[in-house]
Amino acid sequence: METPSAGAADLETVARVVGAVRANIERVIEGKPDVVHAALVVLLAEGHLLIEDVPGVGKTMLSKAMARSIDCSVRRIQFTPDLLPSDVTGVSVFNQNTREFEFRPGGVFANIVVGDEINRASPKTQSALLECMEERQVTVDNTTYQLETPFMVIATQNPIEMEGTYALPEAQRDRFMARVSVGYPVEAAEIAMLDTHTDRRPLDDLEPVTDAGEVRKLSGIVGQVYVSPAIQQYVVALVGATRRSDDLVLGASPRATLHLVRAAKAHAAIQGRDYVVPDDVQLLAGPVLAHRLVPSVEATMSGRSTTAVLESVLAGVPVPAPQAPGGAGAPVGRRRA
Question: What's the confidence (pLDDT) of residue 1?
Fold first, then answer.
C-alpha cells in the first residue's frame, strides 16, 4: 500500500508553524538563518542536533531558544567531568516508608533535552545517551521506561582542541542526525546584539508558539513526503562512496542513510514540496554526514578536513537525471501520477 502524500493544507501547516518558530528563535539568534533552518529540519525529522563551536558564539542560546519556542517539557543537563550516568538516565532509590525501590527519572525524561557542553563529561557518562537517542527508551535496573514523543536531544560541544574536553565516541556522533556550527556573527548582527542583549535578556521574553502535539503532527506530515527510487539510489550511492574513499578510514553508516533521507524529507516539506529532489540531499549532506566521517592519516597530514573530503565525494557521485514519470519535464523526485 502506498503511503498517502502530504496535501497542500498539510504543507501550509508546516510552513506556518516553522515560520513562527523560526521568527521566535531569530529574536535571540540574529544573522544565522542557515543554522536555525538546520535545527528546524532536525526537529521535524525526529532527529537529534549537535551544535559545535568555540565558546561564546550562542550555542546554548540557540538550543534554549528552540526549546522555549515549543510548549513541552524541557530539561537541561550540564555535562561536567563529575557527572554520573545515573544523573542522565535516573536511579532507583529505596523508600524507607514503603520499603520498596522507587525510580527517580534523570535529565533525559523530557521532550527536549538540552545537553550543554556534552564533551566535557567522561565517555562513560556520554554513553548514557546511546539507548535513549536511538530507541527513545531508558533501561535502569532491568526495567525499561519509554520516553514521550517528540523527543529531541540538542547538545552543544566545544571543539576537541579546547582544554578539558573528551572526543565523542563514533557511536555517539552517529546518533546525532546533524551537526552545525554557529560561527561568529557578521558585524551588523554583532552591533544589533549590543542593542538587544546588554540591557535585557531576549530569551526571557520568548513565549511558546507551538506545542508537542503539533510537532508530532508535523513529523507525521514529513513522513508522507515522497522519495522516488532514483533519489533513494542517489542517497545510497553517496553514502556508499564515503565508505570507499581512500581519504576516509570510516565512512557513513546505514543509520546515516536513513538520517539523510529523513532530513531531506523535512527540508522538502518546509520548502512546500511533497517530494524530495537531489538539491535537498546535496544541501544536507554536509550537516548530516561530515561529523560521522573519520579522515585517513594522509588526508589529515595534507590538511584536508572531512568537509573537504565529503565535497569531493559528493562531486564524484552522478546526480539523477530529470525524469518525467508524470509528464515531460517533471522533477526527478515527484511522485508518479
Answer: 42
What are the cell numbers at 187?
558585524
- Compute the distance between CA of residue 141 and CA of residue 59 in angstroms, rounded to an integer: 34
The span from the CA of 190 to the CA of 199, in Å, is 15
Question: Residue 315: how many CB atoms within 10 A of its CB?
Answer: 9
Band (329; pLDDT cuts 50, 70, 90): very low
Distance CA(292)–CA(290), nearest Å, equals 5
The predicted model scores a pTM of 0.88
Please report the DSSP string for 15-81 in residue order.
HHHHHHHHHHHHTTS-S-HHHHHHHHHHHHTT--EEEE--TTSSHHHHHHHHHHTEES-EEEEE--T
Q: How many angstroms separate the CA atoms of 286 and 174, rounded?
A: 14
What's the pLDDT at 328?
40
Ranges assigned E (strand) in 215-280: 248-250
Cα separation, 37 vs 31, whole angstroms? 12
What CATH code is assigned to 1-224? 3.40.50.300
Backbone angles phi, psi at 84, to 5 degrees: -105, 155
SS3 labels along 286-330: HHHHHHHCEECHHHHHCCCCHHHHHHHHHHCCCCCCCCCCCCCCC
Q: What is the pLDDT of residues 298-312, one digit of tens each?
A: 998 988 889 999 999
Is residue 327 scored above 50 in pLDDT? Answer: no
How many CA atoms lie less than 13 Å away from 284 in the CB half-sphere? Answer: 30
Q: Checking DSSP bridges between strand 152-157 and strand 112-116, what pairing results, if any?
A: parallel
Pick the CATH number of 226-337 from 3.30.365.10, 3.40.50.12780, 1.20.1250.20, 1.10.8.80: 1.10.8.80
